[in-house]
Amino acid sequence: MDLNITGEEWENICEICLQEKFKDENFNTVPATTQGDWGLDGYTRTGIIFQCYNPEERTTNHDLHKKLQNKINTDLKKIEEYQKDIKILMDGVKIKKWILLTYRIPNKAIHIYAKRKEDEYRNKQLEILDEDFIVSDLLVIGYLEIAGYSKYGYEKDSAEIWLSVRVRYLL
């Protein structure tokens, strides 16, 4: 199943879900308008960072797997590149988890790939990463039609109802 929404729409939906789920951990968004988003679309004050990804075109499982691998690689490299700025942004809190929010995991191999990247970045011993840094928690926020999403936008009330049913289980 492919979602017929833009990356920006997906990011907006994820943001609503994350603000509700992580409100007690002070979830913040990171706008990409100036100098990109440094490999994170949002973060909590407890050391969890989030990246949203939705390919805008229809894609096969094989292609989606390659795109997810590329997304993981690209954004982890950005965290390494911008670690000084991210450290300031996060007030010195080390990153404990990097979570990719996507609507579909094409196969189990992407979890293995993420685990390898987790090990690779732990071994780099970057100052910004917690020693127990986790990459392998890939989340599928899921079936947005349950949330009342329509082609013309989303409704916060419906998304919150959906949150209580779906995201609590998935997050």
Helix-strand layout with pairing:
Elements: H1 7-21, E1 28-29, E2 42-43, E3 48-52, H2 61-81, H3 83-89, E4 95-102, H4 109-124, E5 129-134, E6 139-140, H5 156-170
**Termini Cα gap:** 21 Å
What is the tally of helical segments? 5
Q: Which spans of ≥5 residues are poorly predicted at pLDDT below 50?
A: 142-171
Structural class, from secondary structure content?
A: alpha/beta
Describe the structure.
- With 171 residues, this protein is an alpha/beta fold.
- The protein contains five helices and six strands, in the order αβββααβαββα.
- The protein has helices at 7-21, 61-81, 83-89, 109-124, 156-170; strands at 28-29, 42-43, 48-52, 95-102, 129-134, 139-140.
- β4 (95-102), α4 and β5 (129-134) form a beta-alpha-beta unit.
- 28% of the residues are buried.
Features:
single chain, 171 residues, 6-stranded mixed sheet, 43% helix
Question: What's the quick description here?
Answer:
This protein is an alpha/beta fold and 171 residues long. It has helices spanning 7-21, 61-81, 83-89, 109-124, 156-170; strands at 28-29, 42-43, 48-52, 95-102, 129-134, 139-140. Helix content is 43%, strand content 15%.
